Amino acid sequence: MAVMSAVVFAKLRNSSLEVLLCGLSLFDVVLLTSSIMIYPSMHQCSTIHEPSERHKSTVCHFFWRVTVFIFPLSLIAQAGSVWTYVAVTVDRFIAVSFPIQRRVWSTRHNSLIVLVIITVISALFKLPSFFEVELDRNGEVIPTDLRKNEFYIEFYLFYLYVAFIQVIPWTIIIALNAVIIRKVRLAYRAQEVMIHGKLNTKREDAERKVTVMATVMTTIFIVCNIPPGLNYWVDQYSKTPVYRQRIPLSNVMVCVNSASNMLIYCVFNVRFRRAALKLLGCQTLISTRQGSVVTRLTNECGHGGMLRSRVATCENLHSRSPEGTAC
After folding, report:
1. GO terms for molecular function, please (predicted)?
2. If you average pLDDT over residues 91-96, what whole number do you get?
3. Range of 303's domain?
4. Statement to judge: residues 59 and 188 lie in one domain
């Protein structure tokens, strides 16, 4: 699903948000692929207790070799994903708070620059993780001296992680989402007042739906990342092992968050839904669904076609009419 999201948004890319969501989908692809390669083989290898049997196991050797290179990439993708959520939230904040300046600030080019910056900073931040583990002479993965260093564990793995991955991005997301939710609620109230006067536009309504989608995404992101965040605090301050199953549970929550984004896109984004169906070869389903709508016929059709239905023009209505009455 993450791959499809990336392909669909790569084809769309008509707005700054779609560029950001394309980048987010790519981070999700890396994160989910890494999880599939690492965690099943790790679980299978952990069931083999005899060292001699582990050294003969193909699964264990696969896990050890993959972990050295793939696990740091998953950490980079995780950091990139977090800050892309921040970028999505900022984009929606600009859209609802500065609608005029948004045309200058929130452009596809600027979003692409933001994604490049996020990727570079995430890679630099997680660069030390490539030097945390290595393979011994038997091919088994072992921690390096860097990973055993107490200062490194406390300062980098805990304090910097908490600041860079949790406190700063979460604070930005929660604060801006509070403003966004308030403004969207006011906009919907204004729409209820003006709808009888038909002052609302489809573009404004679509913009609000996209904003609601982004808010739902970031809310689910916060909820799914609470367990991994708590793990770091428990491991840092607990002197005894506490409920070890919380670690695989938190990993599952992160994967669920990455995999659930496409479902959110399909629910809230009509353009994404249509593009996804087209990518799957379901163009006939789209046409059938659109053709099921019946619009009323008015006399204005015959005078220059001022009123045109999204489904049928005057010509095809005429061809379907059994009496052949002119529009």
Report:
1. G protein-coupled peptide receptor activity
2. 90
3. 293-320
4. yes
